[in-house]
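Q: I'm building a small set of examples for a reading group on sequence design. Run inverse folding on the following structure and report the sequence directly after it, with nothing in between.
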């Protein structure tokens, strides 16, 4: 049985957030798309998905739609990208950013999509499965809508790989222990589980690529790591009183002295859907 994600990160239920947190999350999605390390992860994923002209692709859990629009440039005017996200506010933000490419924005849950079987040639699903309660059910749904021979590319974080240097290790451990289920999902290891999940689901030619993201200063890290982002309000952290401020002071000091370091592995895992 999977650990329940109900007590979970802001990304699991963006529409249920306060206006302040909703704004932070939307800004985070935009900034992440511009971050050089996330772009590096996405280049690996593009190579694995191999989008081609005329294809119909699904971006499952598409957020602000940045990747969907990039995919649309690859598939050209004869293709279509379905950008699906279960948050109405995120989908509305994605529609506001629409650039006229062949992207269709829809709201829906990747665990039960209102799409016919075998309707897409490929799926991109980036940093979404860590937020759902049943990742295998979501993967089965992604397979259902993909035609035999189509590609599925999953990208997800391995929060257990997160490591820091330059700050007190003990304090970092306290922060991470309390952040679990608040700033990160309860499920800490989604990235490394993707390969086994796709193999078990019967995909062929499954490849798995760990991409280790390196952050050499707190500002760069804060885009991807909420636990070094001073904009994230105290009530979201789940840490005992004073711990967040003490930790953020250490982060700032390490940044000022040039000794801050953080690393996080994000996995890119892809495979081909076989004939049912
Ligand atoms: C960390 S964001 C990633 C967004 C986008 N894939 C990207 O990489 O920029 C996670 C997204 O997954 C969406 N999401 C979470 N659970 C979902 C579900 N069950 N079905 C569809 N979307 C979901 C959230 O609304 C959010 O937009």
């Amino acid at each position: 049985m999977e650990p329940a994600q109900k007590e979970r990160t802001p990304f699991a239920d963006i529409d249920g957030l306060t206006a302040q947190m909703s704004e932070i999350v939307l800004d985070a999605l935009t900034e992440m798309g511009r971050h050089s390390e996330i772009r590096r992860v996405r280049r690996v994923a593009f190579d694995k998905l191999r989008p081609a002209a005329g294809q119909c692709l699904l971006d499952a859990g598409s957020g602000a739609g940045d990747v969907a629009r990039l995919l649309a440039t690859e598939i050209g005017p004869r293709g279509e990208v379905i950008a699906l996200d279960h948050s109405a506010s995120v989908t509305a933000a994605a529609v506001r950013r629409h650039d006229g490419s062949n992207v269709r924005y829809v709201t829906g849950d990747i665990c039960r999509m209102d799409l016919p079987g075998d309707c897409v040639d490929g799926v991109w699903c980036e940093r979404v499965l860590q937020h759902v309660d049943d990742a295998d059910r979501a993967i089965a749904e992604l397979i259902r809508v993909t035609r035999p021979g189509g590609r599925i590319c999953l990208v997800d974080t391995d929060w257990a790989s997160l490591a820091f240097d330059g700050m007190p290790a003990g304090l970092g451990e306290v922060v991470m222990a309390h952040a679990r289920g608040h700033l990160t999902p309860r499920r800490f290891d989604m990235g490394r589980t993707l390969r086994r999940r796709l193999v078990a689901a019967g995909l062929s030619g499954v490849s798995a690529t760990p991409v280790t993201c390196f952050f050499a200063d707190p500002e760069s890290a804060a885009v991807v790591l909420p636990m070094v982002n001073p904009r994230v309000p105290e009530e979201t952290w789940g840490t005992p009183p004073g711990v967040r401020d003490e930790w953020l002071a250490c982060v700032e000091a390490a940044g000022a002295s040039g000794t801050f370091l953080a690393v996080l592995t994000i996995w890119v895992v892809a495979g081909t859907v076989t004939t049912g």
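Residues 10-272 form a domain with the Rossmann fold fold (CATH 3.40.50.150).
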